[in-house]
Amino acid sequence: MSHVMNTYARLPVAFERGEGPWLWDMQGKRYLDALAGVAVNGLGHAHPRLTARLQEQVGRLVHTSNIYEIALQEKLGDRLAEISGMDSVFFCNSGCEANEAAIKLARLYGHKQGIEAPAIIVMEKAFHGRTIATLTATGSRKAQAGFEPLLAGFVRVPCDDLEAVRRVAANNRNVVAVLVELIQGEGGVNVCRDDYLTGLRAICDEYKWLLMLDEVQSGTGRTGKWFAFQHSGVKPDVVTLAKGLGNGVPIGTCLAAGPAATLFKPGSHGSTFGGNPLACAAGLETLAIIEDEGLIQNAIAIGEYIRTQLRSRLAGIPGVKDVRGAGLMIGIELGSPCGEIVSHALDDGLLVNVTVDTVVRLLPPLIYTPQEAELVVDKLAPLIVGFLERQPASGAPHPAPQPA
Ligand code: PLP
Which atom of ligand 1 is closest in space to residue 94's alpha carbon? Predict the structure, then answer.
């Protein structure tokens, strides 16, 4: 019997080593990674430059404590401020902790204005993490079930619906912030309309709310900008980042600008491991490699190629509802639950994921070459077609998916 708690429905494969976008299992079978540890390994596996930097840092200093100054934390803070346009950074170890920091900032912000029970607007289908506060913010009853009582102080609205936010604004004086993923990852690769963020910014300005963006999955270059919000001209007040920042070394950050940037004082918040020398070395080197290797531009080109090819290969196939995404955050929505595609892909040496039962999700490393992108399409398109052919006929074919 395993002594590991039974929290994951794991696939029957264990990996022994990796190189670039490739992984090898214990039996020596090779897999093309189109999931990157769920948007973590943007540089792929065992990147030589990152490996050398981590080895050097491990031999020098792994951890001290936030009791002391940490030069690498300052350096990474400067770099994150530079690429995001934000003013200050709190370091933690994961996405949920980054969102916890954002939620605490919003509550402090509210109390400062004399609001005793501050509330945060969150979205249907959102995913913000598994701690009690971030689980409450998450818009999935399935994830929440059994963990009640959840927390007070959250108001849920449909995503991409500015009118719904305005209705809350008119009726709830306790709201202090909006928390949103511009592209919902776990929720099905749902991309918000271009004008949604501009509209949210205007509402937040009008009511003096904090605009808080969860870029835990969409950040670190994945969508073709350092941050998904940079596709618009809008500046948020709070942004959270994790997953891809350390390329697998755990690190999370909560970035803040304007009034939110100075809310935390000594004692307000903290973390034992957050921003330790090893994590910050990983973050700094990952960002440097992304820049030096032009990986953000690569994410745009490769992502566009994969979406275009999949749209053309799946055009007119009954049961294909949509091919969408931005950069290397890609979703293929089918008309029926399609979890079995993950196992078929695994048999075929390809790592993909299915979320919300019906969306095949690709989150490839940012280092993909055009050949690797072609291979993903060549492997995945027939798997999807084969899966759909095995489904009971469901009436008229869906129209061919249109480019976004
Ligand atoms: N926020 C988003 C958008 C995520 O996709 C995730 C994880 O999938 C989280 C938060 C939680 O991150 P973590 O698992 O590192 O706590």
Answer: 15
